[in-house]
């Protein structure tokens, strides 16, 4: 790639808005918080196209190879039935690469989710390069800091963030409803930060 | 495979019409949804005419306004919008105003069409919702209405307060001194309770409690309250919901500012036209009456936008005419001496039916007692001439048919009037039938209601034979509804080649005529069509369903007719070009005409026995 095309794409990139790209809003269910030791129980995602959450793209895939469910089944509501209908972690990752290619990945607290995903992709010798990774938690954190607010311990949880935009509280907490909740939060943030045209991607990263 | 988002599903399942539909319909709906976030800044991008969609509000508050800016509906969680365009295929005309940004579920047209095709209750729900909105949209209260204003505008006196240890007697004294019916109980500048005169009655007097005791014992603790910047509407809502008559008002620091009472709210709610009637009755001169009459057209068009049931408009105008007439007669008597005998001023036609419009002309008369002398007749001749001329100057045109108290034929004694009616009834010529249709709708305005009561009684006693009813029924059937054999509209054409339908002559009038005939036969002495229909319920002449149908048709046609008066298209009065209606309205109009036709035929069958 010549430096000119590079410059051009860098320039175009700077003007990219959230509504211009396909977003994949994802939430993982995990057995714990340590990517080295803990496992992905399930992954759920929903796509946002032209600023609209498209429900027909919603997916929830359970990793049937998960070994150490331990306490989690209670928390995640993943039981033997759900496990039996699950897919191998490889298939799960393959499905995800399909949507992530040329898309922007969005998570609430992306460090955690992306940490697990990156490791899983390496273990399965797969490469996936989302255009960008957005983190609704960071977006909110930066926004609050810009307003000069001091951040309390739990003011950045998904439900606390949603409350700030008067979004309705969710009935359930599983990977898919959290993914949808995150997507809705992102749309609210996009409108708050970007006004009529929506926010520039770089405003959000 | 698409995974179902349980949250969305749970929400949708609770909404009409999905609470009555199978799971497959709900699943299909949810699967095809998209979710958008609508805010004041970004809303323009979502609602495009070329792409109608169904919208379901999940959160936030939105005001739907017509092109003219009137509030059509206030939308919140669970409300749908956008369906009129989906149903009619016509461009979106309403505007959305974002009060609070929120999430909206969007269903594309093809998914909507699929559900409509496959699930009848789904279709019915939205067709009904659309019909309901059509009927009410133009007459919803506008945002500039009184209920939208802040509570603070209502408060006209400072808070009357006492400490909780004050005695009951002291409270009563303070209430007397300030002429209020309630006081606020304050501790450390914060509201802790309320004592009302009702409490003094129920909790003190009725219980025989010692008035020296502290009001703390009888106050309502932790009363409901409202903030001064809340809307009056919220206050009204709160009071109705909790059935309370006194509502403390606090400022943002929760300092008590004052009390509003249900009487304050009622005073607000009283519409301006009603106040105008009150002012007319107090006018001190003819000039003042005329001045007040000039306010009527403006007030009325303003009022028409605010109310849902527009049959009220006719009532209101008739009320205003009654007030003008009554006041003019009073003023005349003040100046020229009290009438020498009892009399009754009566009205006929549209004023009697309370269907008056701004274009209606005068139809009135004077009823005099038996044995009135020529000299006394002179007094009434002058009174009649004076009032009719004054009414004309107030904007109610003189009657081209000369049905006015200024005409000697319309100033008769009880027996003279009865003779006129008897002639028409016994010789039912077309001309007589025309008179019957006007004069049988009659109402008392002012004077001696005893005299009027006697007149009604005599009128009922005049024997009416089958020939008379048959002639009436035949006369009604001369007029036809503008619907052809194949359900198409039969349009008339004016000299400018505009095509139109006459909603009044060929719709409303037929219903009025049919209902009048049944009412005459049943001996009902009301003039208003809806009141006649209501009274007919206790007679066996019409089934409950027929009555309900006629009421609905009458309302629908009157509504449309009034709307044409508001936005005229260069057509004759009361006329409409059906091409300017939506397909649903056209459908409803055909149904209405069809029902009118059935009623007309039933009436011919019953009274004319096929002699037609």
UniProtKB/TrEMBL annotation, chain A:
CDD domains, from UniProt? DEDDh (cd06127)
Q: Does the keyword Kinase apply?
A: no
Entry keyword set: Exonuclease, Hydrolase, Nuclease
Checking InterPro entries in the record gives: Ribonucl_H, RNaseH-like_sf, RNaseH_sf
Q: Please give the Gene Ontology molecular function terms for this protein.
A: 3'-5' exonuclease activity; nucleic acid binding
Question: For this UniProt entry, what's an example GO CC term?
Answer: cytosol
- The Exonuclease domain sits at 22-195
- Which BP terms in the Gene Ontology apply to this protein? DNA metabolic process
> What is the protein name for this chain?
DNA polymerase
From TrEMBL, chain B:
Which residue ranges does the record assign to the Cyclic nucleotide-binding domain? 54-115
Instruction: Identify the residues that the record assigns to the CBS domain, covering every copy.
Output: 155-211, 219-276
Q: Does the keyword Repeat apply?
A: yes
Q: Which GO terms describe its molecular function?
A: [protein-PII] uridylyltransferase activity
| Gene3D superfamilies the UniProt entry points to | CBS-domain (3.10.580.10), Jelly Rolls (2.60.120.10)
List keywords of the entry alphabetically: CBS domain, Repeat
| Keyword Nucleotide-binding in annotation | no
User: What protein name applies here?
Assistant: Inosine-5-monophosphate dehydrogenase
Tell me what organism the protein belongs to: Pseudoalteromonas rubra
